[in-house]
């Protein structure tokens, strides 16, 4: 992808400290087909750099929307609306929850209008755990919510400081030298879910109370496997009544980018054939 002069204007909308190199842009390009012309919509109209780094790449969001397709879905930590927009295409209705009203009104709403799915998305500003607990079960114990999806903030900009391995988008002579110089360093540590995202366990517990068999959580690639599987427990110490947890990997240009933990029953995960293996769900360059 070639960045032209218009990107200078887009950069100014989020601040000059956002890296608009081809590697970072290509993972976050949102394709939108308009009437009579196909154009690219970049999520660079965002007011903060936090949303720029936290938006889910479109190919990954599309895959997650296929797996989570249902009648009504809650998109926790909706942010810029990357997942909500894709859910609106595969689900009957989307409830986006975020704790920042400005982000919901000025970012998610605008992005959804570009894609023509604003009428299928409703938003709630508040803490996700409190919102899920407030959605009470009806007397017949049949929840009106079919699926709860969460994409909690991980601290995305922190990853930019690390030296990327061979096969990464920015693999060049300078980084090749840094890679070999740091090859003997300590290997990358596991991402501590309980320490870095302390509120996640409570949110998952509230979600499983509402939807016991359909909760999905989008996470960093190097999460501790035991902590991810523990999300399927009923509580923090009882593993006797645990749900199945299926972990799906997402790869970007030969590099493992992130994972998604599907807790419960997601039939479309088992429908993948040889032409739809996980490594094929890479963000388009």
UniProtKB/TrEMBL annotation:
Alphabetized InterPro entries for the sequence: RNA_cap_Gua-N2-MeTrfase, SAM-dependent_MTases_sf
Swiss-Prot/TrEMBL catalytic activity: a 5'-end (N(7)-methyl 5'-triphosphoguanosine)-ribonucleoside in snoRNA + S-adenosyl-L-methionine = a 5'-end (N(2),N(7)-dimethyl 5'-triphosphoguanosine)-ribonucleoside in snoRNA + S-adenosyl-L-homocysteine + H(+); a 5'-end (N(2),N(7)-dimethyl 5'-triphosphoguanosine)-ribonucleoside in snRNA + S-adenosyl-L-methionine = a 5'-end (N(2),N(2),N(7)-trimethyl 5'-triphosphoguanosine)-ribonucleoside in snRNA + S-adenosyl-L-homocysteine + H(+); a 5'-end (N(2),N(7)-dimethyl 5'-triphosphoguanosine)-ribonucleoside in snoRNA + S-adenosyl-L-methionine = a 5'-end (N(2),N(2),N(7)-trimethyl 5'-triphosphoguanosine)-ribonucleoside in snoRNA + S-adenosyl-L-homocysteine + H(+); a 5'-end (N(7)-methyl 5'-triphosphoguanosine)-ribonucleoside in snRNA + S-adenosyl-L-methionine = a 5'-end (N(2),N(7)-dimethyl 5'-triphosphoguanosine)-ribonucleoside in snRNA + S-adenosyl-L-homocysteine + H(+)
Coiled-coil intervals, chain numbering: none
GO molecular function: RNA cap trimethylguanosine synthase activity
Signal peptide start-end: none
One Pfam family matching this protein: Methyltransf_15
Cellular component aspect of the GO annotation: nucleus
Family matches, as CDD domains: AdoMet_MTases
Stored PANTHER family: S-ADENOSYLMETHIONINE-DEPENDENT METHYLTRANSFERASE RELATED, TRIMETHYLGUANOSINE SYNTHASE
Family indicated by similarity: Belongs to the methyltransferase superfamily. Trimethylguanosine synthase family.
Name used for this protein in its record: Trimethylguanosine synthase
Biological source species: Mesocestoides corti
